[in-house]
Specification:
Blueprint lengths: L1 H33 L3 E8 L14 E5 L2 E2 L2 E5 L6 E7 L8 H14 L5 E7 L3 E3 L11 H9 L9 H13 L6 E7 L10 H10 L3 E6 L10 H11 L3 E2 L7 H13 L2 E5 L9 E9 L8 E3 L3 E4 L4
Parallel strand pairs: 5-6, 5-8, 8-9, 9-10
Antiparallel strand pairs: 1-11, 1-13, 2-3, 2-12, 4-11, 6-7, 12-14
């Protein structure tokens, strides 16, 4: 009898250990899958230019490398975000500085009051607008000072400014992140190369909105770069014809951010290597009107250890 009880105890112990192992393996797999969740912030406008805010998960189709994905996360709330204002303060922007600062303030005033915001200036060097020790703030007066405390002079370290801003975004507490870059798109002073910027944009979830401010005879202007950064990240590139358009553009960017859908899916891996994945988002089952969709077009799937 004692022998049978001992044998039964060993069976129960073995079964318990096996169950624990299975649960642990399942948990590990769940963590592995969850950690690779791809989150997209998607803007949808109708044929008349207004934001379309009544779509459901079933109205979206997401393709990665041409294959339809299963949407596992969906939301459409005006959530606070981490956002950076990256401003070109080189000599070529001196005559436009007042309008640039006013438009940045227009963006701030139209944003979610709970957003955490930072300011990055760049000319020959990259400088942070907020006081040392303050990474972000929602204080409008502090942001006004941060926008104005760097003179417009020197050359243009655009790539360095973008990379510094993307690094600053990583320190933010909010899941949704965005950058507003106001520049002529040219670079003549950076330590980094455009490839470094491209790699960083592919690796971040952040949306990048670009606003091209330049004169027609500006030799350093590069609107193509501004368009490319916005397109990859799912943002919008604006190339206004005159400075009077800037405040309206920046208020529109704030509205675009606040009206985006958050959509997530778990990509299917074929190996453990890093790979560039292409994304396409389309609308289905929502009537016959033509929709304009802004969403990230590619991202870098990191290698697994």
């Amino acid at each position: 009898m004692v022998s049978n009880q001992a044998a039964m105890s060993r069976v129960i112990s073995t079964a318990s250990a096996l169950l624990i192992a299975l649960i642990s393996a399942a948990s590990a797999q769940e963590f592995k899958t969850t950690s690779e969740l791809v989150l997209l912030d998607v803007s949808v406008k109708g044929s008349k230019g207004g934001f379309v805010t009544n779509l459901t998960k079933e109205n979206f189709q997401i393709y990665e490398n041409g294959k339809l994905q299963t949407i596992t996360q969906f939301g459409h709330e005006d959530e606070p975000i981490t956002v950076g204002l990256i401003l070109d303060d080189s000599h070529s922007m001196k005559s436009k500085r007042v309008e640039v600062i006013d438009s940045a303030l227009a963006f701030i005033d139209s944003s979610n009051p709970k957003d955490e915001i930072f300011v990055t200036h760049f000319n020959d060097l990259v400088r942070h607008g907020l006081p040392v020790g303050t990474d972000f703030t929602d204080d409008r007066n502090m942001l006004r000072i941060a926008l104005s405390n760097n003179p417009a002079q020197g050359m243009t370290a655009l790539y360095d400014g973008i990379l510094d801003g993307l690094h600053q975004l990583d320190l933010g507490k909010h899941e949704k992140k965005a950058v507003i870059l106001i520049s002529d798109g040219g670079d003549n002073a950076s330590k980094h190369q455009f490839k470094d910027v491209l790699d960083a944009v592919q690796a971040t979830r952040a949306i990048i909105y670009t606003v091209g401010v330049f004169d027609s005879e500006d030799p350093d202007r590069n609107p193509g770069l501004l368009r490319r950064l916005a397109a990859i990240s799912g943002g919008v590139a604006y190339l206004p014809l005159n400075l009077e358009e800037l405040p309206g553009i920046c208020r529109g960017i704030a509205k675009d951010i606040r009206n985006r859908y958050s959509i997530g899916y778990v990509p299917v891996r074929t190996n453990d290597k890093s790979a560039l994945r292409n994304i396409r988002v389309s609308i289905t089952g929502a009537g016959d009107q033509k929709y304009t969709v802004h969403a990230r077009t590619s991202y870098l799937l990191p290698a697994q250890p």
